[in-house]
Amino acid sequence: MEASPIRKVVHIDMDAFYASVEQRDNPALRGRPLAVGHGEKRGVVAAASYEARVFGVRSAMPSTIAKRRCEELIFVPPRFEVYRSVSRQIHAIFADTPLIEPLSLDEAYLDVTDNLRNLPTAWLTAKEIRRRILEETGLTASAGISYNKFLAKLASDHRKPNGQFAVAPDMGAAWVEELPVAKFHGVGPVTAAKMTSLGIITGADLRAKSLAFPTQHFGRSGSWYYDIARGEDDRPLVPNRERKSSGSETTFDRDLTEPADIEAGVLRMADDVWDWCEKTGARGKTVTVKVKWQDFEICTRSRTMPNPFADRGSLREHSVALVRSVYPIRTGIRLVGVTLSQFRRHDEPEASLFSQAAS
């Protein structure tokens, strides 16, 4: 029997996507430290340019901290419609790749094992994709090339910005050994801190442990950590992954205690979610309202309907009812959010929801 061909996976990741779009569209912002987000007291950085990252400014950082780290930081409000439009251009460039797994607006996995671009190597395929992205959008992208998803994603970070890096099968395990586990995709800050407390700093430290060790300390994730420490990842690419939820949230300029103000915020978030539903044709059955109190404690309330929400008014009504369930207000509320989940397409027959159970 013939051996299966070695997989060739490319991970394409745009460089500082939101910030780069803003710098492309406004030459006065080029070369300057830039944050996409609202710079008011309660704002959060959605994206940071590379000039801002030099000062330690990162996405999800509170605006006040970002401004302290970089006094010259320029805040630009996000333009999500523009980002989505550019994203469609980028994903259209991927279209003649046989297997694509979109991850977000600005990144995707491509399986180029079966070469439909008539290019001799995965390296040249990635280079051609990056060239077209630059030519058609004016933006740069970085690429990682390897034999599995884990290594391809790690590799795309290795030559950022505007570069690419390949991890061949004969170097995968050794390359992982040299890296800090904190850089591993799927190892967040909490897990990284726990690994450090267990004496695991690098991939080599993790690889030295038996399977029983990570399983004991990290439960079901233990086998995943055991495999990636050896450069192994058998996950297939999953094309056209269904979106499981859509949500919107806002942080208020001041802590709110008046029900009318709180409910007005919830209604705005419900409207944002419904606008997305209108554009995509998706309809969901479960609505969840999130509340973050003044002391940063978070609570959520959910309600699942027999059928998907059919109109804006119904979503608004149930969202407000859910936030009212947290009354009386024990302290100020700093954030509210609304999320819709358990989707189906609005044009999908209701009977199809039960077809799998009936078969």
From TrEMBL:
EC number: 2.7.7.7
Taxonomic placement: Bacteria, Pseudomonadati, Pseudomonadota, Alphaproteobacteria, Acetobacterales
Molecular function GO labels: damaged DNA binding; DNA-directed DNA polymerase activity; magnesium ion binding
GO cellular component: cytosol
Residues annotated as the enzyme's active site: E107
Domain (UmuC) ranges: 9-188
Role summary: Poorly processive, error-prone DNA polymerase involved in untargeted mutagenesis. Copies undamaged DNA at stalled replication forks, which arise in vivo from mismatched or misaligned primer ends. These misaligned primers can be extended by PolIV. Exhibits no 3'-5' exonuclease (proofreading) activity. May be involved in translesional synthesis, in conjunction with the beta clamp from PolIII.
Positions with a binding annotation for Mg(2+): D13, D106
Annotated region (Disordered), positions in chain: 236-255
Subcellular location, record wording: Cytoplasm
Cofactor note: Binds 2 magnesium ions per subunit.
Entry keywords, A to Z: Cytoplasm, DNA damage, DNA repair, DNA replication, DNA-binding, DNA-directed DNA polymerase, Magnesium, Metal-binding, Mutator protein, Nucleotidyltransferase, Transferase
UniProt cross-references to SUPFAM superfamilies, sorted A to Z: DNA/RNA polymerases, Lesion bypass DNA polymerase (Y-family), little finger domain
NCBIfam families: PRK02406.1 (NF002677)
Catalytic activity entry: DNA(n) + a 2'-deoxyribonucleoside 5'-triphosphate = DNA(n+1) + diphosphate
Organism: Acidisoma cellulosilyticum
A Gene Ontology biological process term: SOS response
Cofactor requirement: Mg(2+)
Signal peptide: none
Pfam families: IMS (PF00817), IMS_C (PF11799), IMS_HHH (PF11798)
Protein's UniProt name: DNA polymerase IV
